[in-house]
């Protein structure tokens, strides 16, 4: 699940422009701390590697992730620089890679005339930062080696120590708290940091440190209960668009310590509180067992829509289950007709607690390595078992944002492929959630427990929407069109009752041709704290951060937040008009610029079509005054 398209930082640029220039409010010295997602940071070589049969070698500081030229011409060398030892997460003996630093590490993964635009992450938004006059020290990227497990990030790179110093440096440099922006796996990283911080700071100082250093947390596309695609990447491989085979992708992915970090898990199972046991003098070595409540036993699929994995176990065991090429050629498979494969099904809990990997241990050579990684780096982690539900972080302002209503994978059927490892499994069917129903790949309706809607094409709705549990017992719900609107199609329901652990399903209408954004807001349940959940129709996991709609909403929310004369806890949703010249366009039906009260036709040299000549009448500052 790549977090490479985490480009909503444009909103950071806009809101920081608002607070660093003429729009300054109480938080005029905010900083933006960006935690990128999976595979969203450049990795560079820290070795000298001679690649035989290829004119391209690897030298120190050469780009490894992502250099498609070397990937195509010297894939074996490239794999040496990418793969880790699955048992101790050390580098290959011939090549090591380390994450790049600064904003340059997250702008373009593979710079180049052709490859640059294709791998662009935040480059265009850095340009926006410059155009809006943002200071260079106001946007801080915190790249990390996304191949490592959380404990290894700290052990090898002191990542969380450095992240703490980043917050403290930003406060000293800018004079105010920071806005944390995380996408995809970056949210898991931030969660681990908050738990790690509890053991680094005196208990009485923990809350004060958070209040002083973190003003708001924006969680975009957070896989709060894991992601189903992780299972596919583990068993059959996921190329993410790279020019490699699925088997090669699987071989590489399963050496990463982070491969288990996004496994789907049950919302009904938890572990003991490490923080409490640490300060009570309890034994920190024996608290890792799962504790599941009665709902886990009563539910069919650990609360998920269906079983995560359905797999046919071959009728042969051990090495014969994944033979070599020579063995395949010499084998007499006629005896297989006498045996019938057994189909086994596994829920999210059985995937995350290792039951699934134990069951296929005799049929797959990766299972033993993955079990070791799962136990050592996750279940036995001294700080946190990340494969447990996340309660609301103790932060002042939290905004959980994700896309819904897209076709999303929620279950797989696997069977032996008859090929050698790493291509020994094949996907025979896929279960999708689509608009509140479950369907197979062939289009047949499947029984299960579908949610009210579907996910964002990558992370299922069940996982994305877990943050609704961070809302209190009374929630205000607003649904508006995503596009600019005059307020005629705005629906508001106030003080809707919400039971913890239950989904909130608004009883609101929607037009089939309109994309909506639904806001769930709570500023009363936790004194001094605000929580909001935003659901964007048809927003793709990888592209949601490119959405100008989300950019606009983040900008308006933070503009409202810092304004000394604000009249409500959240920005008004009554109407949305253009805020930038780019939002104005030509209405060919009326032969004039759309939104005539805000936009006018004003030709400038270089405009090539009518829409480019439509520009704002007033300054952005005047337009923003309507949203206080």
UniProtKB/TrEMBL annotation:
<dbReference type="GO" id="GO:0006629">
    <property type="term" value="P:lipid metabolic process"/>
</dbReference>
<dbReference type="InterPro" id="IPR003386">
    <property type="entry name" value="LACT/PDAT_acylTrfase"/>
</dbReference>
<dbReference type="GO" id="GO:0008374">
    <property type="term" value="F:O-acyltransferase activity"/>
</dbReference>
<dbReference type="Pfam" id="PF02450">
    <property type="entry name" value="LCAT"/>
</dbReference>
<protein>
    <submittedName>
        <fullName>Phospholipid--sterol O-acyltransferase-like</fullName>
    </submittedName>
</protein>
<feature type="signal peptide">
    <location>
        <begin position="1"/>
        <end position="21"/>
    </location>
</feature>
<dbReference type="GO" id="GO:0005737">
    <property type="term" value="C:cytoplasm"/>
</dbReference>
<dbReference type="InterPro" id="IPR029058">
    <property type="entry name" value="AB_hydrolase_fold"/>
</dbReference>
<keyword id="KW-0732">Signal</keyword>
């Amino acid at each position: 699940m790549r977090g490479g398209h985490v480009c909503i930082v444009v909103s950071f640029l806009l809101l920081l422009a608002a607070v660093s220039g003429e729009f300054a409010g109480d938080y005029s010295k905010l900083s933006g701390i960006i935690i990128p997602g999976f595979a969203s940071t450049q990795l560079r070589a820290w070795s000298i590697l001679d690649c035989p049969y290829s004119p391209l070698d690897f030298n120190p500081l050469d780009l490894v992730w992502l250099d498609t030229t070397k990937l195509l011409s010297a894939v074996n060398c490239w794999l040496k620089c990418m793969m880790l030892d699955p048992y101790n997460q050390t580098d290959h003996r011939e090549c090591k890679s380390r994450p790049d630093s600064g904003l340059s590490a997250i702008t373009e993964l593979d710079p180049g005339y052709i490859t640059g635009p294709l791998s662009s992450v935040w480059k265009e938004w850095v340009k926006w930062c410059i155009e809006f006059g943002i200071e260079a020290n106001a946007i801080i990227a915190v790249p990390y080696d996304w191949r490592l497990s959380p404990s290894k990030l700290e052990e090898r790179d002191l990542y969380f120590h450095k992240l703490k110093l980043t917050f403290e440096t930003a406060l000293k440099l800018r004079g105010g708290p920071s806005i944390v922006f995380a996408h995809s796996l970056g949210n898991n990283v931030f969660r681990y940091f908050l738990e790690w911080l509890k053991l680094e700071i005196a208990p009485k100082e923990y809350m004060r440190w958070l209040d002083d250093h973190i003003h708001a947390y924006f969680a975009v596309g957070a896989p709060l209960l894991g992601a189903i695609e992780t299972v596919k990447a583990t068993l059959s491989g996921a190329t993410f668009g790279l020019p490699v085979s699925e088997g090669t992708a699987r071989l590489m992915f399963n050496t990463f310590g982070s491969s288990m970090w996004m496994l789907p898990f049950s919302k009904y199972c938890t572990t003991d509180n490490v923080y409490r046991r640490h300060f009570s003098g309890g034994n920190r070595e024996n608290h890792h067992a799962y504790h599941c409540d009665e709902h886990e036993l009563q539910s069919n699929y650990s609360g998920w829509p269906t079983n995560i994995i359905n797999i046919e176990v071959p009728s042969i065991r051990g090495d014969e289950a994944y033979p070599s090429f020579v063995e395949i050629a010499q084998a007499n498979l006629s005896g297989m007709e006498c045996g019938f494969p057994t189909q086994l099904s596994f829920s999210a809990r059985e995937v995350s607690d290792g039951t699934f990997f134990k069951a296929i241990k005799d049929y797959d050579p990766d299972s033993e390595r993955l079990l070791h990684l799962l136990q050592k780096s996750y279940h036995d982690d001294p700080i946190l078992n990340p494969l447990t539900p996340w309660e609301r972080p103790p932060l002042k302002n939290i905004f959980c944002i994700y896309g819904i209503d897209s076709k999303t994978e929620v279950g797989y059927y696997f069977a032996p492929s008859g090929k050698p490892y790493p291509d020994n499994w094949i996907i025979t069917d896929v279960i999708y959630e689509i608009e509140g129903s479950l369907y197979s790949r062939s289009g047949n309706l499947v029984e299960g427990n579908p949610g009210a809607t579907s996910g964002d094409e990558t992370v299922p709705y069940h996982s994305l929407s877990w943050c609704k549990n961070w809302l209190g017992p009374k929630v205000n719900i607003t649904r508006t069109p995503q596009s600019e609107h005059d307020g005629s199609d705005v629906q508001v329901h106030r003080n809707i009752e919400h039971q913890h652990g239950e989904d909130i399903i608004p009883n609101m209408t929607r037009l089939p041709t309109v994309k909506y954004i639904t806001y769930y807001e709570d500023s009363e349940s936790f004194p001094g704290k605000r929580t909001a959940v935003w659901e964007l129709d048809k927003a793709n996991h990888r592209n949601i951060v490119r959405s100008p709609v989300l950019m606009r909403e983040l900008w308006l929310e933070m503009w409202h937040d810092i304004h000394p004369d604000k009249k409500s806890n959240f920005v008004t949703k009554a109407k949305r008009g253009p805020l930038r010249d780019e939002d104005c366009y030509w209405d060919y039906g009326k032969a004039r610029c759309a939104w005539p009260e805000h936009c006018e036709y004003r030709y400038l040299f270089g405009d090539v079509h009518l829409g480019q000549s439509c520009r704002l009448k007033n300054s952005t500052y005047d337009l923003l005054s309507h949203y206080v």
